[in-house]
Amino acid sequence: MFFQTPIYLVGLLSAAIPLLIHLSRSRKTRTLRFSTTRFLTDQFLRSYRMSRLKELLLLAARMALCALLAMTFAEPFLQGSVATGDPTLSRSVVIVLDDSASMHYRDSDGGTLLSRAAREAVEIIKGLKPSDSASVVLAGRRADGPLAVYPEPTTDLVGIENELLGLAELSNSAEGRPEALGTDIPGGVLLAERMLADREESSHEVYVFSDLQQRGLAAPALAGETEGSFDSRVVFVPVQPTEPVSNLGITAVQYGASRPMAGIPFSIRPHIRNDGASPRSCTISLHVRADADADDADEEGYRKVAEQVVNDPLEPGRWSVFTLHHIFHSGGWQSGYVAVEDERLTADNRRYFCFEVLDAVNVIAVNGAPSSIRRNDELFFLQAALAAGGADTNPIKVTSVRANAFQGASLDDVRLVILANVETLPEAAVGKLERFVDRGGSLLVFLGDQAVPAFYNNQLADPSRSRGSLLPARLAGSGPKGNPSAGDDQPPVAGVGDFAEDHPALSGFGSGETGRLGAVGFSAYWALDPTPNSRVVMATGGGEPLLCEHLYGQGRVALLPRAGSDWSNFPVRRPFCRSFTGWLGILRNRPEARVPRFPETTRPRVLQRGTSSAPDRRFDRRSGGQSIAGLRVVKPDRTIGVFESMADPTLRRSPSVKPTSRGLPV
Q1: For 211, what's the count of Cα atoms within 13 Å in the CB-facing half-sphere?
Q2: Under DSSP, is residue 124 helix (H, G, I), strand (E, B) or coil?
């Protein structure tokens, strides 16, 4: 007899509790003899013996009840023997082998669990007579169900043994990779039962070799089968590791932007989980497709481009997210994988990906406040942020036009239009913008001192237009809040409060990986009244919206604070370059590259407003963020699908750091 959870056998000690109670209540009495009571002695002895017997039986029943309760929790089971049937009877045997990913775990001797199971199955086949029949079923979860190596039991027992031994050798070799990740034990048993249903042998036997993972036992059964249809003798043979499990695996991969661009760093974040029994350190690496003449490519044609050594041990049952970076120097489809070094179970050591890297992106920037002094020009900091990577690696080509020349500019090969502190636009130019965004283009609007609220509210944010408001928010008030003419020695009137850390343009600021927003201050800003379908991405410490976005037709529109340094120290802070390139990364996608958004199933999170009474706005993943809908990836089975992030949108308040005076970073 074996036990699934033998630790509960400690409960057998509870059987001693009734015995201790019995002994504690037993009293030894002194005997006094009286001549006048001798005639009662015989009757007294008979009654005493009967009472004593009843007490002992009750004691035994109580002790047995405690022992049975402990054994019930320990889950006892009987392991089938190799040849328990009658040797005079003919036998038909089906070996059901679990060939899922978990069975490829390497034990302390270096062999896999599947290899051990196959060799134990060979012993069963050797116990059959030449006239008996046998077959093998592989019970991994496949699209067409479990795989029968032989469609029906055969008397070629030598061939069966060779198949099992070959499977054992392949599983132990470096080329031994699982064909099926999941387990379908119920389906394998039912398939074996079908194969034995019409056999003429006297004994029908099914032997199931598996590590008995809970998910495999809960797999859906084959259609049309019922409990009463079983006629075969089914024996489960558990195959377990001989020492505590040690395994690290990649459970998911996140991406820092919805689509990478050539020449801009792209972040890939693998989720590593420790499924072992002890803390583990690891080494994570990133591999991409190598050139045909590359000398450092592996056997699959990939080369290592990034590596991270994790020295802090990952606790058992816990997972963590790590970040790797890479710059793709050319556009087109790129493939690769993320790997973690772990020799025990290689099936979950890699996650493959495949996505399109965009080449040069054409952007038109409408300059609403040009200046002969370069630093005072409205586009100065935007162009400086784009040039941070160098002219040779910058994939974004910006064409600057004046507001009065925008109407005549061609938007045929343009994916993004930037309005930088534009005062007004003609009605024809507004219609041109609406058609551009509706077809899949993107619009980025920076507000400044030249903005006229009447134009923005009555033209760009008019809900009565054919497709509704082009902007995600209306301008509240007749002018900006704060003091636009304040100097560097004046304290700011607002700082960055809550922001959506799941948004690609702001990802990493909460952890400090790409900088912090706590030192960003504003001496002036426009008060915004977001539209019902917009998303507030960033707010002030008092809860007032600073940055909003929404979808318009097939495109996207974002409304941001001024890009110059007159109103804020944001353009001269480290996070500005990262956030601006992040915005460009999510706004310059081709219309044909978009896919339908999946409906939101989780409850959207509410942007906390602190003590402000500003209207409630919700952060919605449908309008952007690390959900990365539309990013095509290659799954472990090498099929291409749409990536859906496991991360839930979170709000992160920037650290409470007093904003400093504006100035260039040292």
Answers
A1: 23
A2: helix
**Where do the H-state alpha helices sit in 127-184?**
157-172
pLDDT tens by residue, 393-421: 566 778 889 988 898 898 888 888 989 88
Matching fold, domains 91-238 and 248-357: no
- Beta bridge partners of residue 285, listed in sequence order: 307, 339
| CATH number listed for the domain at residues 91-238 | 3.40.50.410
Distances (CA, A) of 507 to 118, 358, 519, 574, 625: 49, 20, 17, 14, 8
| Cα gap 123→82, rounded to integer Å | 7
Interatomic CA distance for residues 171 and 364, integer angstroms: 58
Smallest Cα–Cα separation from 144: which of 180, 101, 196? 180
**pLDDT at residue 120 tops 90:** yes
> HSE (CB half, 13 Å, CA atoms) of 381?
25
Q: pLDDT value at position 582?
A: 65
What's the order of all strands across the beta sheet hosting 147-148?
147-148, 133-138, 91-97, 203-210, 233-238
Cα 170 from Cα 176, distance rounded (Å): 5
The structural architecture, per CATH, of the domain 361-596+604-653 is: 3-Layer(aba) Sandwich (3.40)
Please tell me the distance from the alpha carbon of residue 598 to that of residue 621, in angstroms, as a whole number. Answer: 10
The one-letter code for the residue type at 158 is V
* DSSP string computed for 283-348: EEEEEEEPPTT-SS--TTSEEEEEEEEEEEEEPTT-EEE--EEE---S-EEEEEEEEE--SS--TT
pLDDT tens-digit readout, 129-157? 999 999 999 988 888 888 999 889 999 99
Most confident of 9-13, 89-93, 628-632: 89-93
pLDDT, tens digit (0-9, with 9 covering 90-100), for 325-380: 888 888 888 899 999 988 788 888 889 988 888 777 788 889 888 887 777 777 88
What CATH number does domain 248-357 carry, 2.60.40.10, 2.40.30.170, 3.10.129.10, 1.20.1250.20?
Answer: 2.60.40.10
Alpha-helical (H) ranges within 329-465 are 380-386, 427-438, 453-455
pTM, rounded to two decimals: 0.51
Residues 6+ apart with CB under 8 A from 191: 137, 145, 146, 148, 222
Give the pLDDT of residue 437: 92
> Residue 467 has what DSSP assignment?
T
Domain boundaries, the chain: 1-22+46-78, 91-238, 248-357, 361-596+604-653
**What does DSSP assign to residue 456?**
I
What secondary structure letter does DSSP report for 25?
H
